[in-house]
Amino acid sequence: GLERGAKNEFSTFSSFITTINQKKEDIVNRNSPTQLVIPNIRNVRDLPPICLDVRQKQRISIDTLPQELKAPIPPEPSLPIRTKTVKDFQDDVEKAKSSGDWKAVHDFYSTTFDSFLEINAAFKKDTSSPFNTIEDSGINAKFVNVVYDALLNTPQDVQKSVLKGVINGLLQEWKGPRTKDDLRAYCILLQNPQFSNTSTYVIYAHLLRQIAALTEADHHFLVHWSKKISQRRFKQLVDRLLQFISLRLFPAKPEEFPPMVKCTWWIPSAAKVLALFNAANTLISPSIISYTDFYNSTLDHIDLMEEYHNWQCYGNSHRFSFCQYPFIISIAAKKVIIQRDSEQQMISIARQSLVDKVSRRQKPDMNMLFLNVKVRRTHLVSDSLDELARKRGDLKKKLKVTFVGEAGLDMGGLTKEWFLLLIRQIFHPDYGMFTYHKDSHCHWFSSFKCDNYSEFRLVGALMGLAVYNSITLDIRFPLCCYKKLLSPPIVPCNHNTLVGICDVTLDDLIQIMPELAHGLNELLSYEGNVEEDFYSTFQVFQEEFGVIKSYNLKPNGDKIPVTNQNRKEYVQLYVDFLLNKSIYKQFAAFYYGFHSVCASYALLLLRPEEVEILVCGSPELDMSALQRSTRYEGYQKTDLTIRYFWDVVLGFSLDLQKKLLHFATGSDRVPVGGMADLNFKISKSEASTNWLPVAHTCFNQLCLPPYKNKKELKQKLIIGISNAEGFGLE
Description:
By secondary structure, the protein is an alpha/beta fold. It has 29 helices and twelve strands.
């Protein structure tokens, strides 16, 4: 009823506002509200951060904004006096439900939503107060929620009156500078649940357009006000915007909407408003909702490479691309972009090698099309280091690995084995490059000084090759490592520019050294006299090869005592020293190694969490999905042994399921594409049932003897997966 009625009632809305479309288009282009289009993609040093105006972490007021962002603040018009309270409204709704007379409720809705002034009169906490700070929107959120929760259960004429009022408000308020009351009205109107219905999308689109066209200063307020919205309602707003984009791209009933050529601004406007919510989400730690809740899986089905190329070629223009808003693109879609970009680079490099060979009248060789790595098992690290250093110009070719003295053809298995063995050796504690922290179960860079950091470059190149060749590595780095890898995401032109340096906090340290982070937290919260009780200075001590060395955190730090007044500075400098300065040379080599392979503008699309997933997979396991995608050799999926196997595995604890995955594939994490991308195979082993299961990790293959019963299978499987380390029993 609402859909049909609303369409008939408001079918003239689109034509009625056509006369103002061109002017509004000019406003959008002139204001460029969120400045998300990356200017001059070719000059990395000029790239601004995405959502420059709203990504700031500190809480600031309008007075701290640059002069150019300050718009003249128009005087707030006086508001009508409205005295209805939440209880009064709830009583009116209950009376209407029992009596069937909805006049009082109808009058309230039609009056309240008739203009921006009326919206403020009804929902502003105190109509006599300006509420012009970012800290408090002045909106009575409880009243707004109650009114909207009741709206969809009212008669159709009540709901239509609200939509009429919204149209009036949008037509009345579109000119001139915005007051804080206008911003409050926009904030309230965005939460209208009627906009989940496609019949209201024309109105919703114009609301989004007006919000997108606001100035940066106004967006600044909306962002900070939005972060005060409850988690459930915040997610509803994000979901509504994502649905709007999806249905505009792939409408179930195309005739419901105006032709795409007449409303090309719908999706850009929605994306810009989504960017405001994304910015609000990043301002709070922990965030209101997960960053993955902003993903729009519908975009997985569009031409992503066209979007990517538009972004690369027209980044400084007003041509829209979803890559301007990377938080909307799912990690699966980003992986497709990175893979195809890698393939194109591989083809380009290989073609150039071929052209060079032919131009010198030399006979082409197929091996020149690949990055051929030949290593001896007994000298794995040194040979790999030499090969990658010698063939630095070939790193962007398809990788093929040969073990000297072995007649193996690399169809993917040898490459994976090379990665597995090399990573295992490099990260061994005896090797000294990385320190394993048992409390956090992760590795971190050794701060020991040395003359040559080329092996750190090798590890970075290995990670880059893994991403470039779509191989998941069994590496345990904290999230901070991936933040540093994206600092900056593109190697700067100026080689004197520092790389791998990012803002770090105690939250980063706790992921690596939880005990130390806890101790520093205790220092910050200590209520006694810090200087007298701790007797510390701005100096830290580290053991290097059995020798204790001291480092000043600031000039003359050994002479500056830590006090109650400067302890925050001490903690920040200490964390920065541990995670940035003490390992700068090691990490810089690692950074350059990674980017020597993965240099791509596609990295600008990624969050640190997404780089981690690309490198070592996702920790989210779905064994039912693995069961559906598993292939069999010598078995049928209906065989008794296979049925026993899945009954046992699906009943395992998460810890045992991870051990099984690690046993069979070399990693307990899942590729970006999910379990299906593992190409997991169970083969029938002709060995005695007294034997344990065997795994070929290079091929993600489990060899399973035909055990007689479920109990025996479970016992042997648990023994195998719990005690196997590498290529034999521990």
